Amino acid sequence: MSGKQLLRFWAGPGALAKIRDEGFSPEKIGTIAGASGGAKWLVLSQIDRVVITRILPRLIGPVHLIGSSIGSWRFSCYAQEQPLATLESFEDAYLEQRYSEAPDRDEITTRSRQILQELLGDNGIREIMTNPVLRTHIMTVRSRALTASEKAPLLAAGLFAAASANLISRRTLGAFFDRGLFFDRRDLPPFFEAAGFPLHRVALTDDNYAAAVLASGAIPLVLNGVRNISGAPAGVYRDGGIIDYHLDLNTSPPDRITLFPHFYDHLVPGWFDKKLSWRRPDPRHTDRTLLICPSREFVASLPRARIPDRTDFQTMTPDERRKTWRSVLAECEALAEELNTVLDKDQLPARLESL
User: Fold this and answer.
1) In the prediction, which pLDDT does 4 show?
2) What is the DSSP string of 69-105?
3) CA nearest 172: which of 66, 292, 270?
4) Model-level pTM greater than 0.90?
5) CA 78, CA 51: separation in Å to the nearest integer?
6) pLDDT tens readout for residues 342-351
7) Would you list the DSSP string of 38-69?
């Protein structure tokens, strides 16, 4: 793809005007957002390296990190004292996941706990909780009624009912799930009063941080939910992407922008909205958002012409999956090169498109 632009830069009206008038600098960032998406994050790992090395050191705090699912895992790397080394270690552990021929939820959950422990190490939580600039926040959902069951038929029935109701209105998800926001109490985030769904706000602590991250990525029927998290209302907590798949929240503090490295050039509000082309986020929530993503042409050039996803565990042998994923990572080095060039040459204002 030599000579073609591999990245797209999309901005909401507020961010578009601000960056075109004043230029782009990391000091303007007030929030960094990270969506759900499982293995899709691999297409961003090279961009994450640029953010870590070029942008994080220039942020003026407090800067909020808000992630659901894999977003919260990525940001658990960002906020440690050695973010680049932590990200690289996490990436390797993620690539090398190994399971039996037909793993059940218990096996997958156990391996996820092991990877998270490797990511956090002995001091990671303390480093995250005391980061002088970054404030980490984690989106989960607390399950209600049938969706709180770990019995597959009951859970599947609850998910089917939720998906069916969601066709009528996204707000109906509040009958099946509550939002669970685990937040850094040092500085309250712009989305602390998020409306639209029942909301439980839980302060992050050394005792509940790992459980909150694990819950945020606990995909129903794939991983077990996390029960009775310390400091949180009793219940079963699951993948935050069920409600906040691509974070349909007011993420931007006043006079600051939200940086959103993303897999796609569009945003999907909730997990059940993936095939609902008419369902879009509230435009007020994206007014000051700067979204950076691979171009569709770049994605088409990747191995198998798509971004990795969790179905690769079923459709490829373990060796095929690891080889394909590593090939994707190698191809995505070109994204980092282009982003570095855009930053070096101050090209971002001219590359902006309207989100």
Assistant:
1) 85
2) THHHHHHHHHTSSSHHHHHHHHHHHHHT----SS--H
3) 270
4) yes
5) 9
6) 999 999 999 9
7) GGGGGGGHHHHHHIIIIIGGG--S-EEEEEET
